[in-house]
Write a structure and sequence with these properties.
The structure holds two protein chains of two kinds.
Chain A lengths: L3 E4 L2 E4 L5 E7 L5 E8 L3 E10 L2 E4 L7 E2 L9 E3 L8 E8 L8 E2 L3 E5 L1
Parallel strand pairs in A: 2-11
Antiparallel strand pairs in A: 1-3, 3-8, 4-5, 4-9, 5-6, 7-8, 9-10, 9-11
Chain B lengths: L2 E5 L2 E5 L4 E8 L5 E7 L5 E7 L5 E3 L5 E5 L4 E6 L8 E10 L2 E4 L3 E6 L1
Parallel strand pairs in B: 2-11
Antiparallel strand pairs in B: 1-3, 3-8, 4-5, 4-9, 6-7, 7-8, 9-10, 9-11
Classes of the chains: A mainly beta, B mainly beta.
């Protein structure tokens, strides 16, 4: 089954404690992205990757890092989380084919206290 | 720059009534347009998409949308609402498949 898998689904952490949210896709997609969803703001792109070792900032990259060492994995790293990063995070993957859509993971609800 | 506007953050309809969720976009190039649905505690599921070709697009669960270039709109409709349609709906525009611009979402409530 084609899917994007994120872990963990829920995470509560304290300010300043480094964390990583993992994302893996099994569709051999070139593109992967991270979005955050906040009430009234919809989804906003944090970072994206067009291929292995190729990453770039999205619209709200401050406070986040990513890496793309393997095609299937695209972890999101918060080196020093702050309460304003409390949000619902989604990983997405898509093909280079412009006629296709993005596939989303189930989401990670992060609370920073 | 691309943008998406969804009119109405909350929409309520009676079961069996027409569902109309509005989406307007701006794009400097011919856009690719999408509607996604999000059920509680779940990810985003594609309802339908417009890339090229026929401007009336049919999706899953009886939904459809029409791309109207002159009105820069891509409204989502369903002739008869069902209780299971209660969810949040997102319109999105994309020029490249690695970047989507989402609207702020419309939460649909279906009244018995």
């Amino acid at each position: 089954e084609a899917q994007v898998t994120q872990n963990p689904r829920y995470l509560i952490t304290v300010t300043g404690k480094k964390l990583t949210v993992t994302c893996s896709q099994n569709m051999n997609h070139e593109y992967m992205s991270w979005y955050r969803q906040d009430p009234g703001l919809g989804l906003r792109q944090i970072y994206y990757s067009m291929n292995v070792e190729v990453t770039d900032k999205g619209d709200v990259p401050e406070g986040y890092k990513v890496s793309r060492k393997e095609k299937r994995n695209f972890p999101l790293i918060l080196e020093s989380p702050s309460p304003n990063q409390t949000s619902l995070y989604f990983c997405a993957s898509s093909s280079r084919d412009s006629n296709t859509e993005a596939f989303f993971g189930q989401g990670t609800r992060l609370t920073v206290v | 720059a691309q943008s998406v506007t969804q009119l109405g953050s909350h929409v309520s309809v009676s079961e069996g009534a027409l569902v109309l969720l509005r989406c307007n976009y701006s794009s400097s190039v011919p856009p690719y347009l999408f509607w996604y649905v999000q059920y509680p505690n779940q990810g985003l599921q594609l309802l339908l998409k417009y890339t090229t070709g026929a401007t009336l697009v049919k999706g899953i669960n009886g939904f459809e949308a029409e791309f109207k270039k002159s009105e820069t709109s891509f409204h989502l409709t369903k002739p008869s609402a069902h209780m299971s349609d209660a969810a949040e709906y997102f319109c999105a525009v994309s020029e490249r498949t690695y970047k989507y611009i989402f609207g702020t979402g419309t939460r649909l409530k279906v009244l018995a």
